[in-house]
Amino acid sequence: MKRSLGKDDSDIEQQGREPEATTLSQQKRKREKKRRDELSEALNELSELVFKVDPDLKSGRSEYLTKSGQEAEKKSITTRTELIRYSTELIRRLHGENERKDKIISEQAAALATTSGD
Fold first, then answer.
1. Which of 39, 60, 65, 77 is deepest in the core (most CB within 10 A)?
2. Do residues 75 and 63 touch, judged by C-beta distance below 8 A?
């Protein structure tokens, strides 16, 4: 729906400037570009971190679970969606490893406590 020009708008046009609607449109484009730029920057940082954690991924030697979580397949990251999917799987895997290691440490600490208590 196009708005009608008011007195202020006609003054703006006569002075060689564009009406307020164009300014709002330009502001919207600027905000959207800023949002895209920030998203790209964040995804680049995520990508750098993922490659640092899993250097084999760059060479295509890394494996990760498919959507179904059933089987591992060799993948390389070519899209943003794949980056997010792989990052999610990597975090899950690292969290699982961390929990297993915490359990082992707790068991060893308990065994050490009973051994030193004798």
1. 77
2. yes
